[in-house]
Amino acid sequence: MAATDARIPGLRALSTVLLTLLGVAAGAEARADETLVVPMHAYEVQHLILPARVQNQLSIALVQDFGLGTGADVCSRQSQLESGYACFRHGGSQYHGTPEPGRGGEVGSVLQPATARFLVGYDRVVLENLTFGVRVGYVLHGGGPRESGADGASFLPFHGELRAGYTFGASPFRLAGLRWSLFVTGGVAQVDTEHRVFIREDQSVPPPTSQLDNPPTQTLSAYKRAGTGFVGGGAAVTWAVTRATGFTLGLRVTRFFPSAGTAFSPEIGWNLGF
What we know:
Elements: H1 2-48, E1 56-72, H2 77-82, E2 85-88, E3 106-126, E4 130-141, E5 158-167, E6 177-200, E7 217-240, E8 245-259, E9 261-273
Antiparallel strand pairs: 1-3, 1-9, 2-7, 3-4, 4-5, 5-6, 6-7, 7-8, 8-9
Organism: Chondromyces crocatus
Protein name: Outer membrane protein beta-barrel domain-containing protein
């Protein structure tokens, strides 16, 4: 009986130790579970919180137009009246002679450097991918001379357009990096494309009294005048150095009316968002 009583304190001590170990293990397991849950939750929250979206964009751009024209006898009287061509002699005066049929200047289907222009723009970012904006600008180089006569048309240096665009990606205006976009556009502008053409004068037709000095042959500057309305579209890629600033390269294809013509226009620009 005494031996049994002697073992009771030892058993009690052993039970206490076992219960303590079990409690420590349970606490450690609970802490381990918390350790797994908390970082996962923090990871999810971290990736759901993105920088604020750029709402507005200002831009400047340089645009070089390349005109595509074609035609035969472009410096004939009929062509200059009806086909959007205006031909000028070396001294700058408009040509009013009568070329031989088939010798009035031929323009092939080749892209030629045309007008160059400077544009300032504003775009409003709608939702995550859509933009709506305007462009205004001025032609820096390439406009042809004024046509002769009291009603002679002058080149229109002003450029104005409305533009809508779509930028690909989940949140393109929240992050830096490359942004790819497509756009459509329409507005008011004129593109003049100069073509150097050779003509031969029809000696059987009396010259106009206002221009008696046309030589038998000469090389003229034939300007294809396209505009002053237009519609078009294009693609662009922007390297966003930050979410708010970046550099853009683009290419647009434009169709002009009522004086018909087509232009391909690469552009380079800089954007500032806020």
